[in-house]
Amino acid sequence: MLRVRRAPELAALRYRLLAGAAAVALASLAGTAQAQQAPEPQATQGSDGLEPGAVYIEADSAARTGDVITAEGAGADRVLARFRGATLRAGAVSYDLGLGVATADRQVEFTDPDGNVVFASHLEVDPDLTAGAAGDFATRFRNGSSLMAATAVRRSENVNELNYAIFTPCPICDADGNPKEPSLSIQAEKVVQDEELRAILYRNAIFRLGGVPVFYLPFFAHPDPTVDRASGFLVPIPSYDEGRGLSLEVPYLRVVSPSEDWLISPQFNTDVAPLLNLQWRRRFADGMIVARGGYTYERSFGDFDLDGDGDAESNVKYGDRTSRSYFLSHGRFDPDGPWRWGFTAERVSDKTLFDRYDVRDPYQDNGLYYGDQRRLITQLYAERQTARSYVSVAAFALQSLRVTRFDPVTPALNEFEADGALPVVAPLIEARWEPAGPVLGGRLRLRGSAVSLFRDDYVGGPVLRPEIIPTGSTLGLPGVDSRRVSGQAEWRRTLISPLGVRWEPFVDVRADLYSVGDLPPMLGLKEEAISRGRATAGLDISYPLFRRVGPGADLILEPMAQLSASTASDLDPRIPIEDSQTLELDESSLFRIDRFPGYDLHEGGPRLTVGGRATLRWNEGRQASLFIGRSYRADEEPAFLTPIPDAPTQLYDPTGLASQSSDWVVQGSFSPSDRIRGWGHATIDAAGEIRRAEAAVDGRWGRRNLATVSYIVDRSNPLAGPLNRNYEFVQLSGQQFIYGNWGVAASGIADLERDIITRSEVGLLFDDDCFRFEIGYRRDNTRVRPTGPSEGVYVRLNLATFGGTGY
Could you give the CA distance from residue 686 to residue 680 in angstroms, rounded to a whole number? Predict the structure, then answer.
């Protein structure tokens, strides 16, 4: 065993390889070609089993001549060194104890603890990391990108210089390991990797697509591939719109710290003033805040009938130049303990600003409550959650961007939903609690709820019941305000008989107290206090039946029923319907005690609900299922009827629950292979007419070919008119590769109610493991746009490492 004594400062040689990611320690070598430095006191083992500062070396031969220690591999064998979670392989390794210079030759390969790999034919570096050199240098980063050079020199602790270099974020070998031309690469006379700047700088850079030079820049820079994010320009976003003309958005990311950044993204337009977009993000120890905003100083623009001849001129500027802006922000904080809180703040100066300037993703689901599509929400909320309880307190206000009446000639004159017609909710309190153990052998849950709603503008149906809607003019009437406190207790127990029948008896008791103000004065109604209660008892029964129908195939049949009886519903017409206007009957809601989503409406009397589900499973997860169900009530419930918007004196049933028998619920899904899946849902009335339906099918073939088609229809309103919100849409999207990485992409939405294609795109695409590029034509016929139909060319580009046209 050969041991080498040396000065303490040379006890471990450390150097960083030219990728800037490696730390190497060479220790004493033994004549048996294996040696290990004695561990320091109280050392702990690393992931490779070595104590800190220790190194493990394997070689066919090792020797010492004076101060020079050498280790070599025989033939194709290489020296192996492991240290600090990293691995070094080379044909020969030497270290001069006197000069402190380490040298590695022949197929040098280094893998750092993060997975970055460095290759070279020759490598040398001094012990204090201030200088180093390599020939035939190459490195592969953990994100798959590669950097290669004829020669490489380490100028300082933070700067690596590479000559005649190539960088590519793309694979340089095919699936069989053979070399291939990268689809995207940057060739440069000189490349400098500055670790302090965390950037790679190029001189005389040539961009190549498939090996073909397409662009030249005398200087170019981008973040180091190992950097998650760094300051600099992102990929520009070109677009065209008939209202704005040609647009170019140039986003710049400014990284302030690891927990904070700014995104400055001005949109320059040829026909209108620029729009400045800003985004600020900040993470804290227990939360985060994201704030977005935009500003421009411009007149409004759109299709406008200037001379009143019934034809709208395109892209007319009208109104005064004024400040136009938007602000979208949200924050979430989760400190230690059961409490967490958050907020959203969302406002826009113009109802159509998002549409006219194509602001990206303005309608996001942040916070405790969501504003829904084309509605912005500003809210403040707090939650407390434990294993057995939950409490939330919130207050919020809404801003609507929805069109209530479309102008058939001039889209710029569309009428929008008034913000005063939407309630201000302050506060909304929800609470749940259940004891730790069973109660009477079952589970007990207690719920509480309280809410106050204030509305500025008068709103009739469906908020007000037909009985209290004034027959005359409602101009100048105030909005109805309401306050509610509710308490509920539910007990349920599960029993399974020896034959496998599942029995679930349940009892549910609820009490509500309302205070309603600003009711229509001509009806003689004033501030009203209303109380009501409801008690329900019932039984859920299900009987799953299982049968093997073939090799690897199973059939499951599950008939189910619910029998329940409640006290009379006691639906006082003075109670506004605020939280129960939308009901979607499906497999999950059909068997609920409260099928309405809120508290304002509930069902009473005896009810019987029946249904059945059949599921076929075969061949490793492939399956198909179908559910059919319906509910029956002893009496009709006229309180569920709502005035038709275009004929307030006539009523219709949007819920499907007003009659003695509910709508049929039909729901199914199928996935006959791992490349095809689909689902569907429909509610069908007693006459066999579809009230609502929705279905979708996804398919994949080849390696990247795919398509999706979906269909949705609503036929609940029986009377046509300007306010009729029935709809029927088909949406299709897909991509098909024709030759290699080249293909076509298309998408579209067809409005079958109006017999028009509302949105469509068709384009040419190139997509490989490195980048995706699309160019094509798009048209937008949505009626909410103030500019009317819009068409133009779109360009989308996403580059590995460099980012894409989205951010």
Answer: 20
CB-CB contact of 315 with 792 (8 Å):
no
380 CB neighbour count, 10 Å cutoff: 18
Q: For residue 742, count other CB atoms closer than 10 A to its CB.
A: 12
Going by C-alpha positions, the residue among 494, 87, 536 that lies closest to residue 104 is 87
- In sequence order, what are the residues at sequence separation of 6 or more whose Cβ sits closer than 8 angstroms to the Cβ of residue 471? none
8 A C-beta contact, residue 513 and residue 528: no
Strands 232-233 and 252-257, by their bridges, are antiparallel
Q: What are phi and psi of 351, to 5 degrees?
A: -65, -25
Look at residues 223, 209, 225, 272 and name the one whose alpha carbon lies nearest to residue 246: 272
Both structure tokens of 180: 């291939």
Cβ within 8 Å of residue 463, ≥6 positions away: 480, 576, 577, 578, 581
Of 378, 342, 376, 377, give the one whose Cα is nearest residue 359.
376
Q: CA-based Rg of the chain, rounded to a whole angstrom?
A: 35
Would you state the structure tokens that stand for residue 445, as one six-digit string? 């849950």
* Helix segments in 57-208, DSSP class H: none
- Please choose, from the candidates 422, 604, 580, the residue with its C-alpha nearest in 3D space to the C-alpha of residue 510: 604
Strand, coil or helix: what is 30? coil
Buried-state track 443-460, b at ≥16 Cβ within 10 A, e below 16 = bbeebebbbbbbbbebbb
Residue entry with tokens 């040419």: 764
In one letter, which amino acid is 384?
R
**750, containing H or E segment:** strand 742-751
Residues 6+ apart with CB under 8 A from 65: none
Is residue 309 within 8 A of residue 410, CB to CB? The reply is: no
Local structure of 435: helix, strand or coil: coil
Q: Nearest Cα to 303, choosing from 789, 760, 758, 757?
A: 789
3-class secondary structure, 318? strand
Model-wide pTM > 0.90? no
Cα–Cα dist 39/42, whole Å: 8
Q: What is each CA distance from 435 to 384, 399, 417, 652, 737, in whole angstroms?
A: 17, 40, 45, 43, 58
8 Å CB contact between 333 and 341: yes
Q: What is the signed CA dihedral for 766, 768, 773, 779, rounded to 10 degrees?
A: 70
Higher pLDDT, 145 or 350: 350
> In whole angstroms, what is the distance from residue 485 CA to residue 234 CA?
52
Q: Are 184 and 199 in contact (CB under 8 A)?
A: no
- Extract the tokens encoding 65: 């001549």
Which residue, among 285, 374, 391, 383, has the nearest Cα to 343 in the 3D structure? Answer: 383
Distance CA 302, CA 244 (A): 10
Take residue 758 and report the two structure tokens written for it.
Answer: 């509302």
Question: What kind and span of H or E run contains 720?
Answer: none
**Residues with Cβ within 8 Å of residue 524, at least 6 apart in sequence:** none
Q: What are phi and psi of 638, to 5 degrees?
A: -65, -15
Kindly provide the b/e burial profile for residues 139-155, where b requires at least 16 CB atoms within 10 angstroms of the residue's own CB.
bbbeebbbbbbebbbbe
In the chain, what is the straight-line distance between the N-terminal and C-terminal CA atoms, in Å? 60
Alpha-carbon distance of 327 to 346, in angstroms, equals: 6
Question: What percentage of the chain has pLDDT greater than the value 70?
Answer: 87
Write out 58-92 in H/E/C secondary structure: ECCEEEEECCEEEEECCCCCCEEEEECCEEEEECE
Find the mean pLDDT for residues 485-514. 96
Residue with tokens 């139909």: 789
For the segment 1-21, the average pLDDT, to the nearest whole number, is 30
At residue 669, does pLDDT exceed 90? yes
Please state the rounded mean pLDDT for residues 21-42.
33
> What is the C-alpha separation between 734 and 674, in angstroms, rounded?
17
pLDDT of 607 higher than 90: yes
- Distance of CA 557 to CAs 495, 546, 552, 677, Å? 19, 7, 17, 21
